[in-house]
Model the fold of this input.
Amino acid sequence: MRCTGEQRPVPADIDLSAYRIVQEALTNVVRHAGIERCRVTIDYRDEELSVEVVDNGRGATEEGSAHGFGLIGMRERVGLLDGHLNAGPRPEGGFRVAARLPLPASVEVPVEAR
Done:
């Protein structure tokens, strides 16, 4: 796992969505990729939080699976936040899930969290 950018608090809905996207992508790696490792990158940008999970496993021949709704759920989460999701096989092999979640101009941290 790698984090880049200035780590800072993000709104709870964005934080939870990023967590769930990574969780589902890692579940898919375990179930479908046939490998033991992958790369997770969290990038704190000025206007968005970027989440990427990449593996070099078997990949997929098409988006989605007949056995679950993981990619559909990721798309719905990202859509509710006006973000963007890109998920699919990589040309060099493996699979990539990348989400961009817009961040508000400023995030206030609750007093009890300080």
Q: What stands out?
A: The beta strands are 2-5, 39-44, 48-55, 84-89, 95-102. The two ends are 26 Å apart (CA to CA). The helical segments are 12-33, 70-80.
